[in-house]
Amino acid sequence: MEIRSMLERLFSDGGDKGVLGAVLNGSFYDSESISKSRALCIPAVATALNFVAGTVAGLPVRLYRKSGQAITPVEDDYRLQLLNGNTNDLLDATQMKRALVTDMLLMGAGYAVVEREENRISGIYYVDEQFVNVIPSMDPVHKTVRIYIQGTEYRDFEILRVTRQTVDGVSGQGILKQNGLFFNTMYNALKYENKTIRSGAKRGFLKSKYKLDDASLQNLKKAWRALYDTERMDTPNVMVLNEGISFEPASATASENQLNESKRTNTELVYNLFGLTTNLFDTTTVNSDVYINAVKTGILPVVAAMNNALNKFLLLEEEKGRLFFEMDTSDILKSTVEERYKSYELALKSGWLQVDEVRKMENLPPLGLDFVKLGLADVLYYPKTKEIYTPNMATKSNLTKTEVEGGEKTDES
Questions:
Q1: E strands, 164-272, in order
Q2: Cα(297)–Cα(277) distance, rounded to whole angstroms?
């Protein structure tokens, strides 16, 4: 514990905690990798992650029962409260889902401990991935795993996990691991820009006609540092150069001239890694089609991974196949009001939706209309009995017979 505390103090002063985690967990540290905290300093990463993780975290989780072809919602299951309200952890359900998605996208896997009292789940506790140690078996076919959290071993079914591009079902490949060098480049460019703006220094060098002794050289260096020291409040605003000393500005390099262009290109690439486009965040070009496409490419794959994890770890074995959890994406897939109402109009005219069903989809109270609206111009055919019914004529006929039932009788004479 003393060694751990010493290392934590050592890395607390601006050190990279990704390195610390690798040292303490005994894992290999890649010098080209980037930590989660540093990646989140990049605006494009924070923006894309806020859209994806924030959207998924806000989706309610529903439970459904499947009986034959019929699927009915279950509203009184206690697990819905754990997934939509109080998890019995310090994090509520929305915060837990956001943290799981963040770890899955950036680091490859998000973890949560599922505590049970016999067969009843008592709480779901999110655990930061840096505290989770995974030791897979050597068998590539019948895979098993041992999972440790700060030295305590947990059984496989006790750890809910959401993974990205996994080959073992426990750990995955996050965006940061797959593109570590790219994100490091963006982070270093951000640091370079910050250093330049913070110091206000114009790049260049001092030129002296005469050779300076050590004392003069040290005084010159001290005065130069003091001029651009942004930490001190009493920093002088001017520096006096002795006779024979002049400042020569350094011309901007090609990389500096291309920095702004590279930032725009890199920002677009970051959005693409999350399944998004720059148009989504451009108020002049964003529209419902851009948003729906972003949902399909950036949100729905994450939702599918979450659904699979919830069904695998929160259902009893005898419930699997009869019950299933699913995140409700109906609200984020809704189009504009005009487009939505046109769709409802078509569905009502076609007869496959009724008025109260439409009102329920719009979160409006039902009107109690228990009839089914049919058009008089429609002809109804019953394939099983080979019967045809024409509402407009009030007649019913059978394809295997010749007589016609009902309808008005006409005088043939």
A1: 204-208, 245-249
A2: 10
Burial class (CB in 10 A: 0-12, 13-18, 19+), 221: exposed
The C-alpha torsion from 330 through 331 and 333 to 339, rounded to 10°, is: 110
d(CA 2, CA 112): 28
Q: Are 73 and 62 in contact (CB under 8 A)?
A: yes
Dihedral (CA of 301, 302, 304, 305) sign: positive
Determine the average pLDDT of the residues in 272-286.
Answer: 88
How far, CA to CA in Å, does 303 sit from each of 68, 104, 130, 267?
25, 12, 23, 24
Residue percentage of the chain with pLDDT more than 70: 74
Q: What is d(CA 389, CA 381) in angstroms, rounded to the nearest whole number?
A: 6
For residue 147 the two structure tokens come to 């999972």
The H or E element containing residue 405 is: strand 404-406
Among 125, 121, 126, which Cα is nearest to 316's?
121
End-to-end CA distance of the chain: 110
Residue 269: count of CB within 10 angstroms of its CB: 14
Nearest to residue 82, comparing CAs of 160, 14, 1? 160
pLDDT per position as a tens digit, 112-131: 999 999 899 999 999 999 99
d(CA 208, CA 140): 69
**Contact of 189 with 267, CB cutoff 8 Å:** no
Q: How do residues 68-101 score in pLDDT, each as one tens digit?
A: 877 888 999 999 999 999 999 999 999 999 999 9
Cβ(214)–Cβ(257) under 8 Å? no
